[in-house]
Design goal:
Length: 336
Amino acid sequence: MSTLPFYCDGMPSFLKEIADTAVMRRLRNVGMNCGVEYTRFPLFRKIAPYSRYDHSLGAGMITWRFTGDRAASAAALLHDVATPVFAHTVDFMNGDHERQESTETRTASVIAGSRELGAILDKYGLTAYDVSDYHRYPVADNDTPKLAADRLEYTLGNMVNFGFADVREAARLYGDLTVGKNEYGEPELMFHTPETAESFALLAMKCARVYVSPEDRYAMQRLSELLKTAVERGVIALSDLETDEPAVIRKLTADETTGAEWENYRRLSCMADPAEYPENARVIPAKKRRIDPFVKDRGRVSALSGAFRREMDAFMDEDLLSPVCGIQMTDAGCSG
């Protein structure tokens, strides 16, 4: 999926120039879906390409539309600049399943280390400090379950990519947004109308269930184990994770052992009873992503919609610590 068209009308020069730097262009070959799109699970088999670059453009443009603030918008554009190949799968490799923040630590150093980017920032009166932490700008980012540009972009992008809504519906939801003060007196992206906010919230919950589905968690865990094996065997270096996915895949497939494991990963297509395939079973915790949007002058959707409140509570109560098991596609169908 390319950047949703309603984000990028009138992109200002400073965002275009930042987006065209080498550190940003790398993200064109780093996916949003953490490598699960390389499997054959039906949930992911037909999703369109959706890169961290597309996501970053959208986050930057959303922030620009609602703030007109260069620093906040550039910080939103750059927030994923240090994202490694396969994104949060590397958090799984690092044992950071539930927070999924271990891969964010290099953002400031990547920004500070790019002379090309530094020259552009200087041209527009910005510093590396201004743009290295988008958490300082609440319209760009804030704490779950509030709504900000980052969370909004990947939610709209994925609801289209997963087939839960079309581009027209995503544009309708986007068109109802404004910035106002939430219950804490902070600026936040919020909806004008309760009905639109509820629609968005329920669609976002469908996306959230995909992010913690057995297929998603199992694929990320298996890929994280493959990457760890590749590092331990010297097939790839940790620094290779800072390149792009085609480069890492070439190295994985050039080695007999990791090449075979990569092909087995690519053939994952079915979930199975862990008791039947105990060698494949994994207990895999994960981060539960949720959004409880604010309606201007009304409050959170969870306080306005019993249906959404029940849906969110059920989601948060779900146990993710039962073993899950994936198996591979063969010419004859699914097999262990």
